[in-house]
Each structure stands twice: as structure tokens, then as C-alpha cells.
Specification:
Order of helices and strands: HEEHH
Shape: elongated
Oligomer: single chain
Radius of gyration: 44 Å
Low-confidence stretches: 1-5, 16-21
Number of strands: 2
Largest sheet: 2 strands, antiparallel
Strand content: 5-15%
Distance between the termini: 141 Å
């Protein structure tokens, strides 16, 4: 016989492992000991099996067995519904936390942009009087993008003029000539 210490350890291990699988009930495989023997599968599969056994018992006019199977199916239906509610609640909580984090990031980004804009205004305000004091010159470095582009004349090659011949005139050689 096992000592009580090892049995106690295994019992606490069992409780811990079941606590970790609480959210995974939907896909977890169960062994259900029903009146007809064991039924194995996920909660949805077990529900379907017990519902089938309920129909079979009703067809054979065994109301007691039908009620028993129906109660087993109802147990797994409730278990499955509770697990799905927990999953949905967890998902909604995560979405709420994500929305809060996104809102915080948006607030921080807006504050940072406001600070940068106010710093730019302050720098521009400080540089403007200096530019006037220096005779209109500023300490800014001119870049090619800040200078106006010179206007260029279009580059086109002149077309050679076609030689004038009677065939090039409207009507060509076939046109009747005016009275000479």
C-alpha cells in the first residue's frame, strides 16, 4: 500500500493540473462513466453520444435510461457552456486591456507631438529676432530643396521642313489645276 505522503502529493498535483486546464475544457478529452459504460471524447462529442443514447432508449420505450442519458448530456452541456463563457470573458478582458493600452499610446503620441510642435514654435520664435538683429540673415543652412528651381527651356530638336512638291500639297498631282 502507498504511503499517505505520496498519495497526498499526487492529489495536490492532480488539483494543480486541473486548475491549469480550466480554460481548455472545450478541447479536453474526458472519460465519462455512464450507465452503458465509458464514453470518451471532448464535451461536444460526449454530448452527442449521450443524446444518441437518449434517442435509442426512447425508441425502446426505456424512459428511465432515456432520462439518465439526458442528465449525463445535460451535465456536459453545462460544463461546455461554462467553459465557453469563461473563454469569452477572457477574450473581452484582453480586448479591453488592448484598447486601454492603445488609447494610452495614442495619448502619449499626441502629447509628444504637442511638445515637439511647441518646441519648434519656441525655436522659431527665438531665431526670428536673431535674424532681424543680424540684418535679415538667419543661422539656417540653405538646402537645395529650399531654393527655387530655375526654369528650364524645353529641349526639342527642330523638325526638318519637308521639301515642297506637288505631291505634298493638298490634293496632290491628281487635283485639277486652276485655269492657267
Amino acid at each position: 500500500m502507498k504511503s499517505s505522503r505520496s498519495r497526498s502529493r499526487s492529489k495536490s498535483n492532480r488539483n494543480r493540473s486541473q486548475g491549469n486546464q480550466g480554460g481548455n475544457v472545450v478541447n479536453r478529452v474526458f472519460d465519462s462513466s455512464g450507465p452503458e459504460g465509458k464514453v470518451r471524447g471532448t464535451p461536444q462529442q460526449i454530448i452527442e453520444k449521450y443524446n444518441q443514447l437518449t434517442r435509442d432508449a426512447q425508441l425502446s420505450n426505456d424512459r428511465v435510461a432515456a432520462e439518465n442519458f439526458q442528465q449525463h448530456a445535460e451535465h456536459y452541456t453545462r460544463m461546455l457552456a461554462e467553459a465557453q463563457r469563461e473563454i469569452e470573458a477572457r477574450r473581452e478582458e484582453q480586448e479591453r486591456q488592448n484598447r486601454e493600452r492603445q488609447a494610452e499610446r495614442d495619448r502619449e503620441r499626441a502629447e509628444r507631438q504637442e511638445r515637439e510642435a511647441s518646441q519648434a514654435v519656441e525655436q522659431t520664435g527665438q531665431q526670428q529676432p536673431n535674424a532681424d538683429a543680424q540684418g535679415g540673415e538667419s543661422n539656417l543652412v540653405e538646402t537645395p530643396e529650399s531654393q527655387p528651381k530655375p526654369k528650364r527651356s524645353p529641349r526639342r530638336k527642330p523638325r526638318p521642313k519637308p521639301e515642297a512638291s506637288n505631291g505634298d500639297q493638298p490634293g496632290g498631282d491628281d487635283a485639277p489645276k486652276a485655269a492657267e
